[in-house]
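just leaving the lab so this will be short. what follows is a protein written twice so to speak, once as letters and once as structure tokens for the fold. can you read through it and tell me how you think this chain folds. anything you notice is useful, everything is just below:
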Amino acid sequence: MNIEQKIKEQIESNDVLLYMKGTPDFPQCGFSAQTAQVLKQVGVPFSYFNILEDQELREELKTYSNWPTYPQLYIKGELVGGCDIIMQMYESGELEKELKSVAGES
């Protein structure tokens, strides 16, 4: 399996996937920390991948997503965006609505 196939498989097999620097409990950058915290506050389970553990994936994901920065949030296989977009969605209530819809909650 090549790196693009690995990325595609990860995205397709997780309803909510956050590519971040570090982990939700030990983030390695402020933007990743902020995004993970918001996702935790919404309370819907999410998966994550620490891009610092795989340099090849880290570089390929930028091309795959056509998004140059991290974190990157995918919901149901679609790139939602990075920290700024996630924060805007959170503040408007849109993020919670979308995540709870994916989780089958009202």
About this structure: The CA atoms of residues 6 and 90 lie 29 Å apart. The chain has one domain: 3-102. The longest strand covers residues 16-20.
